[in-house]
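Troubleshooting entry. Yesterday's outputs looked truncated, so today I'm pasting the complete records for two proteins to confirm everything comes through intact. If either block looks cut off, that's the bug. Protein one:
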Amino acid sequence: MSGFMDFWRNRSRLFFKNGETESDGETKMKAEGMKTEEFKTEDIIAEKAAAEEAAEETAIEKPAAEETAAKETAAEEAAAEETAAKETAAKETAIEKAATEVKTAENSSAQQAGAEKEPENAASASGQDQIPDPEEVFKHFYAISAIPHGSFFTKELSDYLENFASENGLACMRDEAGNLIISRPGSKGYENAEPLALQGHIDMVLEKEASNSINMEKEPITLIKDGDWLRADRTTLGGDDGIAVAMMMALLTDKTIECPPLECIFTVDEEVGLRGAYALDLSGLKSRRMINLDSEEEGVITSACAGGVQMICTLPGIRREKKGKPMEITISGLLGGHSGEMIGKGRANADRLLARLLYRLDKEAKYYLISFNGGKKDNAIPREAKAEILFAGNYSKKNIRETVRNFANDIAKEYSVTDPDIEITTRWMDKDGEKEDKYIVFRRKDTRRMVRFLMALPNGVIRFSPLFKDIPRTSLNLGIVKTMADGMYTDSLLRSSLDSQKQMLVNRILCIAEEFGIDAKTDGSYPAWELVEKSQFREMAAEVYRRVTGKEAKVQVTHGGLECGILAAKVPGLECISIGPDMEEIHTPAERLSIPSCQRTWEYVKELVAACAKA
C-alpha cells in the first residue's frame, strides 16, 4: 500500500479532452471556471506552508569557472546483429505468409495490453480469400509489407523487385542507389505504341506507437483489414507509397490488360529528400508521359507540388554537474501527420508546445536543461516530445503546478478542434519527490538560449496559396529536436511552391541562428514541380476518369513533395501527372488505406494505360 501511495504523491498527470483538464496526482483541475480542489494530504499541507514562508530569490548563476566540469556519460549502444542466414530465412518466411494471410485484428488486440477491442469486421481468418480485392494488386502489397523497407533500409526490397523481374522475364535496370526501372513490352497490337512510364517510391516512413516494441528496420509490420480500410498494428502502413509499387507490379505481369510498352520506375529514399530520384539516370528512358502513383486522394489529378529543403541547426552547449530536483515533462496525444498534407490543418507540433511550456516555467523558477527530445522525421509533424529539467535553489512546487495547469488550459482551448486529446505529464524523477541529487546539466545560459531559439524558429504555414484554396504556399515544420552531450540539434523541413519564398525562409532562419550563435546549414534541397497551364496528357487523364466513373476529376496542386519535378527536369518534354487512392493520416501510426478506393483507382489506372496505348 505504501508503494501505491508514493506513486500517487510523486506523479502529477494532466489530461486534456473536450476542454476538460484533470489531474490524477496532487490536484484535480477543471478547465471550466479554473477551479482547483486540493487533497489535504500531509505533503500538500507541508508544501503550502513552505511556499507561503519562502521568499522569492534572485536567480544568480555561479561563475562557470567555479562549476564542476561535466562528466560525459555517453555510452555507445551495442546491438548484436543477426546472421545473414537467419535474416534471409525469416524474411522469406514472412513473404510467403504475407501472400496468403491477413493478420487478424484479434491477434493485434491481444498483443496490446489495455488496447481497445478491434472491429468485429476486421479480417479473422487466414487464406488467399482474405486478401482484399483487387487481389492482383494486394497480393503484392502484402508481400512487400513483409519486407522492412524504411528510408535508407530498402536494399532487400530492391533485391526482391529485381528477383521479381527476373522470374517474370522482364527487363530490369538497377543502379547503385537501389533504384530500378522494370520494363515490359506492349500488349498484342500495341508493341510499337508510344511508351508510358509509371513511377512510385519503395521506401516508407517508420513511425509507431510507444506501446509497440517492433523494430521496424528489421521486422515486418502486421496488416489489419478493418472493414473497408487496411491499416497496420500501431505502426505506419506504408500505403505511401507501397500501393504504387503493388500496382506497378500488377501492371507488369497482367497479360489481360491493353498497354503500350511500360517503363516502371521504382525509386528509393523519397521520404528523406527525394534522394533516389536525384541519383537516377534517366538518359535511356523512352517514355515522354509519366503517371506518378504517389497521391493520396481519389479523383484528384495532381499537376504541381512544392519544393523543399532540409534545415539543420546545431546549438553548442556546455554541461556542468549541478545539484537539484529533476522533473520529466512529456507532451503527447497529438495527431501529427505528413508535414506537407496536414500542416495546413493547423495541427499542434509537440516540439513547439514543449518549448512554450519551458519558456513559461523559466519565468517561475530557475531550472537547468538535462535533455529535450521530440519528433523522429523532418517531414512528419511531431506527435510527442519529452524534456528533463533540474530545479535548483528556491522554488515553489505550487507555482510550478499552477504554471503547468494554466498552460494546459490554454492549449486545450487552442487545439480543441485539431488535437483534442493532447496530454501533458509531469513527473518528479527522484524517488520521493523531495530528494536533491547531482546531475549533468546544460549551463543556465545555454538552457535559456536553447529554449529561446526553439521559440524564435518559425513553424507552420507561412503563407497560403492565393490560387488554390486551403493549400499552403510556404511552410516550415520543426520535425526533430534532440539534445546531445555537447549541445542541441534541430531538423526542420521547409516547403514552398516558389523557390524565392523557400530561399527567403532559409535566409530568415540563418539570421535567427546567427543572432543565437548557432551553426545552420541546408541539405536535400529539391525543386518545385511547376504547374503547366495546358497539358494534353492531363486532359486525356481527366477524360478517362470521366468515362470510367461518370465524375469530373479535380486538377489540384499539393504542398507535399513529389518526384515529378526532379524526373521531368532529367527528361526534356516529359509530361507528368500524379494520382492515387484515398489514404488518411500518412506518416503516422493511424495511417490507413481505403480498399474500395483502391479498387476504383485500379480500374482507372488500367483504363488510362489502355488509352495511352491507343492514343
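Protein two, checking that the full record survives here as well:
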Amino acid sequence: MDDDSNMRSLDTERINIHEYYEVEHWTKELNTNVEALKQAVATVGTSIKDIEKYLKQ
C-alpha cells in the first residue's frame, strides 16, 4: 500500500509541476505524458483549464 501521508492536498485549479504526485495525477487525468504536460505549463502556465485547452489543440 502506498503511503500518501507526505502528500499535500491536490489543487484542482493549478498544477505544481515540481510535485511528482501532481504530475502523475494530471498526466493520467488529462491523458497525456510528462513532456507534453511540461510543455503545456511552459506555454500557458499552471491553470488546469488553460492546460486542458492547450492539449486539445
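Both blocks look complete. Sanity check on protein two: The mean pLDDT is 89.
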